[in-house]
């Protein structure tokens, strides 16, 4: 038999029929339309295992930034071309925020806390998603901070001063503390560049004597080892999470959006404080991830912000994990 449009239609007629009948009529009635619509997604958390450690990625929402001016050392048309190749908008980039919770035998560690109530209106979802995943901030044992930018630390303290994790030990990179908490350095900085210093004081000032500073190459909490990843900030830290044969390379802000900075590792986002050092760190870390075929997690990758790094051309490619219904 020759296949014509008519025979194709005829062969699918039995599946199409219910849609054309009562079901279609029902779906257009006001009540069922209301049930099937909305402006919110399911809660933004995603669990996966690294050996015996349960990892939960917790999303804090996202904030749009103009693509123009986002990358210091590339012309806008080149950046727009990279966005086009990734089917992203040509004018804005959505900067997303995804922290991690480690559950290691009932011991809870939060790595980076999101924007709290200090960020853009499209952020600040972290706590709702954290609670939706079944966690209680009072039960967090440790909060580990990768660096002192506001989108990583502001979730520690609400604007009214409330400590969000009342029972947690707070651990920060010693090099980051030394830089941002240095009064002389803050006073030398131009007025417009003092926000980062003041933000760090807002968050850590009330607990300064209790904050634990950690060094690089050290096990910060069981299974989590700090890796020096300077450039984005002076004390910016990545981590290797290990349990049994499971390993996760936590890249923090070694790269921002992967379709721009994993594809083009020599591009510099405006957030990188020492662009050359950040580039060298980025190439080294992505190269390690690719050659070791390690699973990676990074803060500004599209949710659930985990996948693998493949070498491609002069750069790399981020390959997201396949969503799994089973943990
Ligand atoms: Zn960041």
Summarize this structure briefly.
This protein is of the alpha/beta class and 327 residues long.
Q: What's the topology here?
A:
Layout (H helix, E strand, L loop, with lengths): L4 H16 L1 H6 L2 H6 L9 E6 L2 E14 L9 H10 L6 E13 L2 E5 L14 H7 L9 E3 L5 H4 L15 E5 H7 L2 H6 L6 H10 L7 E3 L4 E3 L2 E5 L8 E7 L2 E7 L5 H4 L13 H18 L2 E4 L7 E7 L2 E6 L7
Parallel strand pairs: 4-5, 5-6, 6-7, 11-12
Antiparallel strand pairs: 1-2, 2-3, 3-4, 8-9, 9-10, 10-11, 12-13, 13-14
Distance between the termini: 48 Å
The description of the largest β-sheet is: 7 strands, mixed
What small ligands are held by the chains?
A: zinc ion
Bulk shape: globular
What is the H/E string? HHHEEHEEHEHEHHHEEEEEHHEEE
The number of distinct helices, counting runs of at least 4 residues, comes to 11
Helix content: 25-40%
Share in β-strands: 25-35%
The main sheet orders its strands as 1-2-3-4-5-6-7
The chain-level mean pLDDT equals: 91
Taking all Cα atoms into account, the compactness measure Rg is 23 Å
Low-confidence stretches: 7-29
What is the count of β-strands?
Answer: 14
Q: What structural category do the secondary elements indicate?
A: alpha/beta
Structure characterization notes:
With 327 residues, this protein is α/β, with parallel strands linked by helices. It is 29% helix and 27% strand. The longest helix is centred in the C-terminal third of the chain and has 18 residues. It starts with a helix and ends in a 7-residue tail after the last strand. Bound molecules: zinc ion. Zinc ion binds next to helix 6.
């Amino acid at each position: 038999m020759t296949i014509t449009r008519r025979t194709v239609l005829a062969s699918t007629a039995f599946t199409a029929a219910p849609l054309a009948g009562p079901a279609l009529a029902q779906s257009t009635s006001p009540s069922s339309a209301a049930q099937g619509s909305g402006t919110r997604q399911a809660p933004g958390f995603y669990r996966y295992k690294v050996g015996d450690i349960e990892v939960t990625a917790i999303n804090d929402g996202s904030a749009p930034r103009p693509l123009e001016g986002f990358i210091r050392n590339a012309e806008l048309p080149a950046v727009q071309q990279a966005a086009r190749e990734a089917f992203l908008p040509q004018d804005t980039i959505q900067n997303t925020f995804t922290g991690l919770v480690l559950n290691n035998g009932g011991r809870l560690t939060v790595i980076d806390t999101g924007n709290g109530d200090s960020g853009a209106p499209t952020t600040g979802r972290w706590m709702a998603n954290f609670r939706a995943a079944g966690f209680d901030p009072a039960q967090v044992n440790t909060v580990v901070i990768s660096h002192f930018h506001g989108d990583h630390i502001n979730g520690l303290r609400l604007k009214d001063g409330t400590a969000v994790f009342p029972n947690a030990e707070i651990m920060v990179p010693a090099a980051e503390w030394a830089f941002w908490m240095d009064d002389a350095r803050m006073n030398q900085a131009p007025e417009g560049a003092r926000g980062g210093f003041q933000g760090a004081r807002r968050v850590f000032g009330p607990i300064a004597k209790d904050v634990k500073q950690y060094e690089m190459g050290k096990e910060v909490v069981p299974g989590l080892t700090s890796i020096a990843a300077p450039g984005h900030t002076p004390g910016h830290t990545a981590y290797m999470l290990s349990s049994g044969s499971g390993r996760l390379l936590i890249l923090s802000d070694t790269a921002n959006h992967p379709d721009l900075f994993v594809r083009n590792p020599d591009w510099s986002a405006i957030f990188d404080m020492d662009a050359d050092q950040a580039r060298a760190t980025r190439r080294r870390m992505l190269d390690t991830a690719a050659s070791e075929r390690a699973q990676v997690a990074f803060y500004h990758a599209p949710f659930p912000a985990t996948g693998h790094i493949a070498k491609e051309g002069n750069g790399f490619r981020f390959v997201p994990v396949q969503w799994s219904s089973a943990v």
